[in-house]
Design brief:
The protein contains nine helices and no strands. By secondary structure, the protein is mostly helical.
Length: 178
Amino acid sequence: MGMRAEVLTLLADALDYPRADLPAKAAALAGMLEREDAVAAGALARFERYVAGKSLAQMEELYTQSFDMNPASPLYIGYHLFGETYRRGEMMSALQGAYSRHALEGSAELPDHLCRVLRWLARAADDPECAPILEQYVLPAVQKAGDSVRDDANIYNLVIGAAVRAVTQTPPPGGTAR
């Protein structure tokens, strides 16, 4: 797995429901980004310091408040682009097809969940067949989801911002970063 794929996978792990290894994964992610993206690395180092000082139960509570109890959760990127319309369904169908082509395992989450998208990008960013999905759905949706994050007090917003930066800086297959 290349560095870009590792970064995307670790970002997905950081935005997934908290596990005991969250501080270690956040530290690894911040370290990987130090040379590549100083802004994201700084944000993730701050996130790592925060989670290192919290119990798993505290992080689970914050996660639930931030994402599960928030109807406009930035994790469901299709919602930010299309709302609850058939177009979001089209996006999820296109994503699910792409996940199947890249043997991305199933999940209890909807296909437009940011963690699933990041894990798919980690596997498929170099696949030319993914470029239309990336350009038509993922990039605009991730940018809008990132724009919806306005609560500076929520530490998870640092990870959302880093994920938005990583996705928008992922080169399209055969292209250069945006």
